[in-house]
């Protein structure tokens, strides 16, 4: 830029302190908004990622398994892999009590990627050193401390080992069933026998190489990894192949972007951009208007429009450089503070929730970019005005006195109220912006208030749990696992211990079939039609997949995509529950025999079965696609391919999360019977059908005064006696609903307050400008007899009119939005029931009026205190 | 006679029909190179409008203005601005100095906008003649009215314009300062062979020009030499 222009820009900038302060504040506020929303979004994503990675036990991009030494060495040399860890599984320890301990050889990269680095002590160096979780060390009968001596026992290649080891370091785990004990490569070198590679012959894991990898770019990762598996001579698809070399992308690290999160972020960004626009536009419009004569002067002495544009852009740039960093910093702090409130709503769904946000450059870059964009958009019009005004006009430029009205009715005399009222119309656009930003504050606060009030705590709690407490295996509350194996059953002793507690009422154990119960299958008209479609000689049809992976069943699906898990005879195994009468009584019987007692007795007599149909949480009606049977229709029960029972459908019930598995999750049923049917039988009948019936849940109510005691007792029991269990209580379900309400209030409140602040800043700027530009007018009025008191009164009235206008606009807007947009949003979310309130908007009103009163009084004191003659002179 | 500025059939109308105001109503005028011309008229006679037209600050309703070889009507906005800073020097009643720039910076500002190097010797000659050599580092706010107007004259002369337009240059000054300023204007004009067009409502000041053009109701009433 031209040196003289730069000098001029610099000096003009330095000369307008008040304008700079307000403009920088406006920009900072906008940056704050963006930085806080990006921090919250990125933070929520990071926290969720980390939580899910912890649950999965790895934060890598993916992993390769079952490799031999050469394959692993080739893998390390691949250029697109940034980091490759080394993991050589040995075996599960046989002498660990109440906790599964996997014993591996790891290197530090792998340990880091799989959350196994010691928090205390150091990584293992010698062949007899190990690092393990505190829980694993306790499970081996030692206290977690550096130097602790333990003995580990395991069998590999058919040989039993019992080795004394020393703890070189350990880390803390949350309550979980499985953790890793690891040693370094010195152990591998000391025991070459253990690490003989025989996987291709006998499937022995010891001797194979696993590797968690980090890549340079995650684009097309799955394809690249599978391709690499093949290049290494492996087969990534067929688990039965001798050279099976799985290449698995870590979906926790590389999740598909969540559309909901993106939509919300874009919405907020747009809203904040609008808020920033209202503010920055006004600030610059006022600044340009104040200096328009100066631009005229520049133009008369030969400055082109281009020069004026450069001059202004330069100042905008400096103001941005000043405001943006401050805004980013405060925005980041705000976002960080708000993050735990937001994450709290996931606390119930994710067992060990980690809240974390690192000041990633992405947060600041995105926020800065959005701010720059807003500043640029907002300043274009004022800059254009300065550039395009003809020099002669600029000299004569006086803001329109009273809008476009050419004539008006005059009242008798000129009251201050009328005078103040007339002044409002001087700049319609600017007045409108102030009104809108103040009104938006009220509207947003009220919308957030309505949504928060609409959080239906009882609906949410009753969906999650029908009793006061439900105890399950840990896998059930982990939405990536779910109850699906017999070994995950609740222990009889645990149930007995709970039942023995004082105050336990209506305790019922619920049986559930698993993936191990493939011998019992069911048939009904809907699947008979599906199974009638052409099949090959092994019984496989085009609507059927046979066991694609080790840990899943063959499946069958219908035209609606409803999937059935199949048993040995290729009929559905369904999700089958066995329960006592008390549990049945709590269910939501809707069709057929709706008297629970009669139904239970009929079912006990073998007269039929209760079918559960999943409900749509929004309106609590059946999901039609899951409603596959009719009352009276017969369901045939097969065992080992032989028909053993024919059960007519006696009744149908609408089922919720608690009926399927527990709370929000139904990961288990989705892997066992998949989408259907859900069959409920009396415990006796269930035991008759299944050979090895297992209990997955123990539900019970508590006497009211004993509920807190039970929470304490269960927490202690989970930690010290049976670490495999977890529980949900009606209270914790309510807590999570309350957390959601708090989050909405907090975030909504925060945004409302920021908009309010923007509105007030606008008002302050307007009032100060009015005083500065109308000095002459004020002085004239005072010279013809207006007192300082009257002048103040006039300004206060003007400011109060804005407040009143904002209140009318805000209240109207709040009511209209409440019954349109907000009610629409509320109706799409099952856990919300619309409850109207105007309290938040009403609460803003007094604040607005007090502010509107204080601002002009303070501004007049600060900026208008010279004598009348002085003011006339300055203005002249 | 060498004509530097030629206005033909210049009209400037404001408003429409019944309310039409004819600020200029068919002005034909030629300004001779190197001469000091005063345009005199009462308030509202159209003299300021005429001067603004000459400077390209305002556009006529009809008619044309030619300065040197340049037809002003044919210039775009940016071209007009560039033409102004290279070919026209302005002196205003209220000085129009940039308050945040020093005297020296104010003087060289239009030249710097063009990324040209100021002719230091030439400008120092002007500055010395105007008695500003000890004030170069001052800000306009610290100068008297007469001094500020001298800075404005120096700024107008610095870029060696084809024509210097002065709009009531003494309007804000007392009589002593007024005489000083006009004297200096005349002196620098003849020293640098500078064409000057000045508007004034003061017949006494007009007497110091080489030629007096009287304007009334948007029309030229008389042209005389004092």
Query: What would CATH call the class of chain B?
Result: Alpha Beta
Basic shape of chain B: globular
CATH superfamily of chain B: P-loop containing nucleotide triphosphate hydrolases
CATH architectural designation of chain B:
3-Layer(aba) Sandwich
How big is the Rg of chain B? Answer: 17 Å
Described by strand count, sense and barrel closure, the largest sheet of chain B is: 6 strands, mixed
Mean pLDDT of chain A: 82
Total number of strands of chain A: 26
Question: Which structural traits does this protein have?
Answer:
heterodimer; A: 876 residues; alpha+beta; twelve-stranded mixed beta sheet; four-stranded antiparallel beta sheet; 30 helices; 26 strands; 50% helix; B: 226 residues; alpha/beta; Rossmann fold; six-stranded mixed beta sheet; 33% helix; globular
Strand and helix layout:
The complex is a heterodimer of chains A (876) and B (226).
Chain A: H1 3-15, H2 17-56, E1 62-67, H3 69-76, E2 81-84, E3 87-92, E4 100-106, H4 108-113, E5 120-121, E6 129-133, H5 134-139, E7 149-156, E8 159-171, E9 178-183, H6 185-190, H7 199-202, E10 209-215, H8 221-231, E11 247-249, H9 259-290, H10 292-300, H11 305-343, H12 361-388, H13 391-396, H14 416-424, H15 428-454, H16 457-464, E12 469-473, H17 474-477, H18 492-499, E13 504-512, E14 520-523, H19 525-531, E15 544-545, E16 554-557, E17 563-566, E18 575-579, H20 581-585, E19 588-592, H21 596-604, E20 609-616, E21 621-622, E22 634-639, E23 642-655, H22 657-660, H23 667-671, E24 678-682, H24 683-689, E25 695-702, H25 707-720, E26 725-729, H26 730-773, H27 775-783, H28 788-828, H29 839-863, H30 868-875
Parallel strand pairs in A: 4-9, 6-8, 18-24, 20-23
Antiparallel strand pairs in A: 1-10, 1-11, 2-10, 3-4, 5-8, 7-8, 12-25, 12-26, 13-18, 13-25, 14-22, 15-16, 16-17, 19-23, 20-21, 20-24, 22-23
Chain B: E1 3-14, E2 21-32, E3 36-40, H1 47-54, E4 62-67, E5 70-71, H2 77-87, E6 88-91, H3 103-113, H4 120-129, H5 145-158, E7 163-167, H6 175-191, E8 196-200, H7 203-206, E9 211-216, E10 219-224
Parallel strand pairs in B: 3-8, 3-9, 6-7, 7-8
Antiparallel strand pairs in B: 1-2, 1-4, 4-5, 9-10
Helix pairs in contact in B: 3-5, 4-5, 5-6
């Amino acid at each position: 830029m031209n040196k003289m222009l730069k000098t001029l820009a610099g000096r003009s900038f330095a000369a307008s302190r008040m304008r700079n302060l307000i403009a920088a504040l406006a920009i900072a506020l906008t940056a704050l908004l963006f930085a806080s929303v990006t921090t919250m979004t990125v933070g929520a994503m990071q926290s969720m990622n980390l939580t899910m990675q912890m649950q999965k036990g790895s934060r890598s991009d993916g992993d390769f398994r079952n490799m031999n030494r050469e394959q692993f060495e080739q893998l390390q040399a691949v250029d697109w892999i940034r980091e490759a860890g080394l993991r050589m599984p040995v075996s599960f320890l046989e002498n660990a009590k109440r906790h599964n301990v996997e014993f591996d050889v790891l290197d530090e990269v792998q340990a880091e990627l799989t959350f196994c680095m010691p928090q205390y002590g150091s990584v293992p160096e010698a062949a007899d050193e190990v690092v393990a979780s505190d829980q694993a060390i306790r499970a081996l009968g030692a206290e977690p401390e550096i130097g602790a001596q333990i003995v580990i026992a395991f069998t590999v290649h058919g040989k039993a080992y019992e080795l004394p080891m020393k703890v070189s370091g350990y880390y803390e785990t949350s309550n979980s069933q499985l953790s890793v004990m690891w040693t370094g490569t010195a152990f591998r070198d000391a025991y070459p026998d253990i690490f003989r590679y025989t996987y291709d012959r006998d499937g022995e894991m010891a001797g194979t190489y696993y590797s968690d990898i980090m890549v340079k770019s995650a684009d097309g990762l799955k394809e690249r990894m599978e391709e690499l598996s093949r290049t290494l001579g492996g087969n990534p698809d067929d688990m039965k192949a001798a050279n099976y070399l799985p290449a698995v992308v870590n979906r926790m690290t590389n999740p598909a972007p969540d559309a909901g999160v993106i939509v919300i972020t874009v919405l907020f960004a747009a809203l904040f951009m609008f808020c920033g626009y209202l503010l920055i536009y006004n600030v610059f419009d006022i600044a340009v208007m104040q200096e328009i004569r100066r631009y005229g002067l520049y133009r008369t002495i030969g400055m082109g429009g281009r020069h004026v544009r450069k001059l202004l852009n330069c100042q905008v740039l400096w103001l941005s450089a000043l405001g943006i960093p401050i805004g980013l910093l405060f925005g980041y702090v705000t976002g960080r503070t708000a993050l735990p409130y937001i994450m709290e709503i996931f606390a119930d769904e994710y067992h060990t929730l980690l809240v974390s946000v690192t000041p990633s450059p992405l947060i600041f870059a995105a926020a800065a970019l959005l701010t720059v964009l807003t500043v640029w958009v907002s300043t274009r019009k004022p800059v254009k005005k300065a550039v395009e005004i003809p020099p002669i006009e600029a000299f004569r430029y006086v803001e329109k006195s009273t809008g476009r009205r050419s004539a008006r009715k005059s009242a008798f005399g000129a009251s201050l109220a009328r005078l103040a009222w007339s002044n409002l119309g001087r700049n319609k656009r600017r007045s409108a912006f102030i009104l809108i930003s103040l009104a938006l504050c009220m509207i947003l606060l009220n919308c957030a208030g309505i949504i928060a009030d609409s959080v239906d705590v009882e609906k949410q709690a009753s969906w999650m749990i029908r009793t006061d407490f439900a105890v399950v295996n840990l896998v059930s509350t982990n939405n990536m696992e779910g109850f699906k194996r017999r070994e995950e059953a609740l222990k009889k002793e645990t149930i007995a211990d709970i039942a023995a507690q004082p105050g336990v009422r209506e305790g019922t154990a619920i049986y559930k079939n698993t993936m191990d119960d493939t011998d019992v299958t069911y048939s009904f008209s809907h699947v008979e039609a599906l199974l009638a479609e052409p099949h090959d000689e092994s019984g496989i049809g085009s609507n059927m997949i046979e066991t694609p992976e080790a840990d899943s069943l063959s499946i069958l699906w219908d035209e609606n995509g409803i999937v059935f898990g199949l048993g040995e005879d290729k009929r559905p195994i369904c999700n089958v529950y066995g329960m006592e009468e008390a549990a049945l009584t709590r269910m939501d019987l809707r069709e057929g025999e709706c008297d629970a007692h009669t139904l239970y007795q009929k079912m006990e007599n073998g007269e039929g079965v209760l079918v559960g149909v999943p409900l749509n949480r929004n309106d609590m009606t059946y999901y039609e696609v899951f409603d596959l049977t009719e009352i009276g229709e017969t369901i045939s029960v097969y065992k080992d391919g032989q028909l053993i029972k024919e059960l007519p459908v006696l009744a149908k019930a609408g089922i919720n999360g608690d009926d399927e598995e527990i709370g929000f999750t139904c990961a288990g049923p989705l892997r066992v019977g998949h989408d259907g049917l859900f069959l409920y039988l009396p415990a006796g009948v269930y035991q008759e059908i299944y050979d090895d019936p297992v209990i997955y849940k123990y539900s019970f109510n508590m006497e009211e005064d004993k509920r807190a005691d039970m929470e304490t007792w269960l927490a202690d029991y989970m930690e010290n006696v049976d670490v495999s269990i977890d529980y949900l209580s009606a209270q914790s379900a309510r807590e999570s609903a309350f957390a959601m309400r708090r989050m909405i209030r907090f975030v909504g409140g925060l945004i409302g307050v920021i908009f309010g602040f923007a509105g007030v800043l606008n008002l302050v700027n307007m009032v100060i400008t009015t005083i500065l530009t109308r000095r002459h007018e004020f002085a004239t009025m005072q010279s013809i007899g207006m007192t300082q008191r009257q002048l103040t009164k006039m300004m206060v009235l003007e400011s109060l009119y804005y407040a009143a206008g904002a209140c009318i606009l805000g209240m109207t807007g709040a009511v209209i939005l409440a019954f349109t947009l907000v009610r629409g949003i509320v109706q799409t979310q099952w856990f919300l029931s619309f409850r109207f309130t105007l309290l938040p908007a009403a609460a803003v009103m007094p604040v607005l009026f007090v502010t509107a009163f204080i601002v002009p009084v303070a501004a007049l004191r600060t900026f208008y205190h010279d004598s009348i003659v002085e003011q006339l002179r300055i203005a002249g | 006679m060498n004509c530097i500025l030629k206005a033909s059939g210049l009209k400037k109308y404001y408003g429409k029909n019944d309310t039409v105001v004819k600020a200029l109503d068919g002005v034909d005028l030629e300004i001779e190179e190197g001469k000091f011309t005063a345009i005199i008229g009462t308030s509202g006679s159209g003299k300021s409008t005429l001067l603004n037209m000459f400077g390209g600050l305002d556009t006529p309703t009809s008619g044309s203005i030619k300065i040197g070889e340049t037809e002003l009507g044919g210039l775009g906005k940016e071209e007009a601005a560039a033409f102004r800073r290279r070919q026209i020097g302005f002196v205003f009643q209220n000085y129009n100095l940039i308050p945040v720039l020093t005297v020296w910076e104010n003087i060289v500002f239009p030249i710097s906008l063009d990324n040209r190097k100021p002719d230091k010797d030439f400008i120092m000659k002007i500055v010395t003649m105007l008695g500003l050599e000890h004030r170069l580092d001052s800000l306009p706010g610290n100068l008297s009215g007469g001094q500020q107007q001298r800075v404005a004259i120096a700024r107008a002369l610095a870029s060696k314009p084809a024509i210097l337009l002065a709009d009531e240059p003494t309007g804000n000054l007392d009589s002593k300062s007024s005489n000083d300023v006009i004297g200096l204007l005349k002196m620098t004009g003849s020293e640098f062979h500078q064409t000057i067009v000045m508007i004034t409502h003061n017949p006494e000041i007009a007497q110091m020009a080489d030629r007096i053009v009287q304007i009334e109701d948007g029309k030229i009433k008389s042209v005389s030499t004092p």
